[in-house]
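Researcher: I'm comparing several assemblies side by side, and this is the next one on my list. It has 954 residues spread over three chains. Same procedure as the others: predict the full complex and return the structure.
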Amino acid sequence: MTSTRRTNRALAALAGVAALALVAGCGSSGSSGTATPGSQGFTPPDVPMQQSMGDMEGSVNILAWPGYAEDGSNDPKVDWVTPFEKQTGCQAHVKYFATSDEAVNLMKTGDYDVVSASGDASLRLVASGDVAPVNTALIKDYADIEPFLKDQPWNSVNGQMYGVPHGWGANLLMYRTDIVKPAPTSWGAVFTDASKYQGKVTAYDSPIYIADAALYLMKTQPDLKITDPYALDQKQLDAAVSLLKDQRADISEYWSDYLKEVQAFKTGDSVIGTTWKVIEQVAAGEKAPVKAILPTEGSTGWSDTWMISSKSQHPNCAYAWMSYITEPKPQADVAQYFGEAPANGKACAITGPTFCNDYHVTDQAFAKKIWYWTTPITQCLDGRTDTTCTDYGDWTQAWTEIKG
Amino acid sequence: MIVDGRLKAVLRVLTGLVLLVVYVPLALVMVNSFNVDRTFTWPPSGLTFHWWNVAAHSSGARHALLVSIEVAILATAIALVLGTLAGLALRRTRFFGRNVVSLLIILPIALPGIVTGIALNNAFRTMLGLQLGFFTIVVAHATFCIVTVFNNVQARLQRLGPSFEQASADLGAGAFTTFRLITFPMLRSALLAGGLLAFGLSFDEIVVTTFTAGPQEQTLPIWIFQNLFRPNQAPIVNVVAAVLVLVSTVPIYLAQRLSGDVVSGASGAH
Amino acid sequence: MLSRSAGLRTGLLLLPPMLWLGVAYLAALAALFVTSVWGQNDFTGDIERVWTWDNYRQLWDIPVYRTIAFRTVGIAALVTVVDALLAFPIALYMAKMASPRTRRLLVIAVLMPLWASYLVKAYAWRGMFSGGGLIDWLGSPFGLHSPGYGLVATTVTLAYLWLPYMILPVYAGLERVPDSLFEASGDLGAGALTTIRRVVLPMAFPAVVAGSIFTFSLTLGDYIAVTIVGGAGQLIGTVVYANVGSANNLPFAAAFATVPVVVMLVYLAAVRRTGALESL
């Protein structure tokens, strides 16, 4: 039953892409009218790219991760939106979202001009034609952005950028130094050895967490032949799901908001699990004995991209925002407030070297160890053509079953 | 009145215990608003006025509070009009669709909020092509607030019966005069009770609001929700909640004074 | 007499509320359930208007959804029972024993928590259930421990959040019981407990049922409290939210949302006879 359903889904997805390609064929402008799918296995609809800057529209609707576009309304000292408004005359309306998936949903309304999309949202937005290609020539400091963030599979298609890199980070492994001994070095601590800390293990609450299990399997079970944790065929997904189902017995709770996780680590309700650098720092600031490491297997992570809506009512203000937010000063502000590596290495001059070392801002070797969140689709992202891969819908369903 | 002494004592103790359970978490919120910890863990490692100071300077909180009050007032006003009309319509008339009408009014509150939320979200955006915003929140809230007014009005009308209005009509008063001079004054405390409940329902609603709020408006619950996701901001939500609890006593007390008894809204029955 | 003009008047009075509910609500609900028989493109999240029962078939075939549905209904029932048990004594005390002044204070005391934000209260309970939290702290001298995050914490938190919605209708219902009934019952030789069991409970029953509509449906639709105190557990609301807000799969979310709707409609139909719908 499920396999029929999966085939239907695969067909539906293919049909969807074909329909999009048709739309593309009817478009007028643009680089290529051909139906050659990109390395990601699909052809984005032909959405025109803005060629030059025009007059500011006076306002812009920004959809952002909390902490990416602070306007001082929560803390007058934390404000990089107001200087933007003064500079450009664009009144900024900011809406925050809690998960990548919510961002995709909200972008579909067409109410928002720009979005800070993570890799697990960006390709979906590109494929559905909800975002437009970005003319990087209109972004003032584009040249200063770290080269290892440009033209990556999660922010470009066929060499065309669909956004401006903003910041990135890794999903680290955090543990209580007073309880977890010896100090872990491998993700095995939360998978095969999870029972040592039964009922005290935590994990990120999203289907995309399946990739963490896949990454671990990729390094420890070579016969599964996983080469990309976001390109799993049915057998590989089943292996990851079974690993996570075993882990489920030892889970205290899944987290998605950072407050929940800091609390849990401070009280000892959770002692080991995935985390973000910023959570470690807040918890350490609260005198919780915690440490976060990048395990030997590497890790999953995020790399966020500012993208512009294809239905934007305020495209010039939107470009002005993307240009502003990649300048060193706002980059430093966001990175320090949010706790991630800024895309623009020149921000280091403002944050100081300690911050930049902690977050490995220009550390290409560190960045290479991270598998950035990417939406799994039926066309295998690792280039396999002899099989179909499981897509995000399958992952969502699997995630519900894992949690039980 | 119950006179049995032992029963009285038992009930008194039980009442005290329930109130204790109700107020311990609220007291905890109050303590946490002074907690030095950013994650308000127990017991507090120290006390501070810092969060009160931050909250006082948070224009986001003020703005969200204002939006919440505006939404609640408008939604309550719409609910008062529609609920009263429905209540008047269904009095004494035993027509075929009566049960259907009551069911329809109850449905928005009886069906789970997430269903109402996604149904309205889908309808506003895809069917009507509206932009989500202030207007859509008000419409959504008014929809599930009608029932509180309707029930209070209906209960009052049932209890009082038609005799006063009949007398008014017999004395030659028109329908509107009768409503203005007789029906409305009789309903006033019931409307106050229904309106207060509607206001409260709207003010703290988050599930339906999440799905019907647009980019530019956020109500207080949404603001609080987003602050829980923002580094280093979480503690000020405790301050906001503490202030709300303290401030809320004023309208409830006033309503009590005005109507005699908010909940049952009984007029002169005791 | 006057039946034609009375009918007309009823019709005119009903027109605005029915128009509002019909347009703003019924149409929206209907549209949602039409969506549940449509398919969806998983990658782009675009809805494909092809008729399919796949969403319902999936709900039926995959056992985890049944488990979640039963768990949710079970918790909703438990929350309702707990609230009824807690609400009855305090409502009885307020309605039939307290002096008018005390009664006024008690009504304020019951209404006030409704104003503290839902989220803040849920987080307060999170703090109480945490390791070393208030429950552990108070309980440790007696060897008691917090049950930790999970279904127990979820039930307690939800029962706490919805308690005022149960107390208010029960109080209003009890107040309608005439004092003379108590006297009559006493005169006939019944003790206080017998009076409560034979006279008060049957008369308060519709009010309890009315309150239960709130507690039951609010629990069925909740997805926030369970993520805060529920540990790794999930309810119908969590799955619906994950599918609409996260996976962007509105058709499947709509299909799963029919479960609480059917449960509520069956419940409403069952309680209609008690007269509870008139005493909400």
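Model: For your comparison table: The CA atoms of residues 213 and 267 of chain C lie 8 Å apart.
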